[in-house]
Amino acid sequence: MCYLKTFDPTVPMMYFLCVMSICVFTSNPYLQACSLVGGVVMLILLKGRKSIKLLLMCLAVITVMGLTNPLFVHRGLTELFYIGEAPYTLEALLYGISLGSSIASLLIWFSVFNAVVSQDDILAVFGKRLPKTALVISMILGFIPKLRKQYTELKHAQYANSAAGTKRLHRTAALFTACLSAQAESVIDISMSMKARGYGLKTRTYARRRSFRRTDGAAIGIVLALCMICYVYIGSGKLDYWYYPRLSPGGFEPAASGCYLLLCIMPVFFIIKEKFLWRSCPAKT
Questions:
Q1: Is the CB of residue 227 less than 8 Å from the CB of residue 23?
Q2: Domain ranges, residue 33
């Protein structure tokens, strides 16, 4: 069990919003490294071996974007070699790696978000004030897992019916079309069911999993404080980092990097503590 799940749903949602917003709005390689380290550690602790596929995909994204960016962008003063008449520059290579790292960080943190924040948590936070938005967001988060599960079931059914001999492209297209049709029908059924139950009406009451406590307010305060320190440095320009025409000589601020790294790995300490307590304190009969 993740420690973030013990808080009110507002706390983990605010936490992930702060972490991912900083990752999006800056191209500083030091902050990107902090985001990658924190995201990878969180993902491994929460999902274990199931995270290997996503980590390999993120590594592929960083590698491909880093190697292909100099093929299309020829800016930069440090020429490594030439491909035809076009220079392959170091600055374009590092910018591609930076861009790939940013995308990989978002993928990892979205996976962690999906493991921590459930659809019920989203409905609990936004259901009263923004019911339609909350329903759409919760359905989007559950769309990909449901689609993947249904695709696997239909694929096994086709193999059972000896349909594996058909062309792979045609078989995949037919399965994907069937899955989309089934999901579209499911969305219509869910919307009609929610409307019939009075979802979104002002007179409808909403039950929360637990009440908002002082520890939740303290956690939000710490997260916002660390986030604001990073944003102050970003707004002041001290974290600006450029790649063209040559690499930036600065961009490293120990205070900002330390605060963002602490923000990214803060739940890790509690997860490790919970795992240690769970294994070292067996139930006594």
A1: no
A2: 3-121+213-280
